[in-house]
Design a protein that fits this description.
Structural class: mainly alpha
Shape: elongated
Number of strands: 0
Order of helices and strands: HHHHH
Helix content: over 70%
Distance between the termini: 16 Å
Oligomer: single chain
Mean pLDDT: 94
Low-confidence stretches: none
């Protein structure tokens, strides 16, 4: 059972990096968009991402936590799963602190009601995803290192 959980956790860790890294790769271009186009992209392109990637991040957290519990007697392995678990908790915290407030605010905006300070919201949203991307990569690398150590 442990090898299966370890493999599933590693796959989830990889999948959990994809959306945050996609946002980071788009960031430079998105920071140059005008307000109405940025709003259209936010309201249409990303529709449904949360329904897919939110559960993946939660499952990645639960898998890392399960592995942490199962390896609690092994100091070296425990260390890697502590890092991964803390990173997944940080990813969720980053979402709730940075991205969710922006998502909720802009759901009611139209190109005509776009506030003058919309760029602040855009930057807030992008910073949230940058933090999440870094944390997702650290979690993935920690689990890769645990995998290598166990192999």
């Amino acid at each position: 059972m442990f090898p299966i959980l370890r493999a599933v956790s590693l796959v989830l860790a990889f999948i959990a990096t994809t959306a945050p890294l996609a946002h980071v790769l788009e960031m430079i271009s998105k920071l140059t968009l005008d307000g109405p186009l940025w709003l259209a992209i936010q309201q249409h392109l990303y529709r449904g991402w949360g329904a897919v990637f939110g559960p993946v991040e939660i499952l990645a957290l639960l898998a890392a936590l399960a592995l942490l519990i199962l390896t609690r007697a092994d100091k070296a392995l425990r260390h890697f799963y502590v890092i991964a678990t803390l990173c997944y908790l940080g990813m969720l915290a980053s979402f709730f602190a940075f991205n969710m407030p922006v998502n909720e605010a802009l759901n009611g905006w139209t190109p005509q009601t776009l506030p003058a300070y919309w760029r602040d919201y855009r930057l807030h949203w992008e910073i949230g995803h940058l933090i999440t991307a870094i944390l997702s990569l650290v979690a993935f690398v920690a689990q890769l290192r645990a995998w290598k150590r166990q192999a």
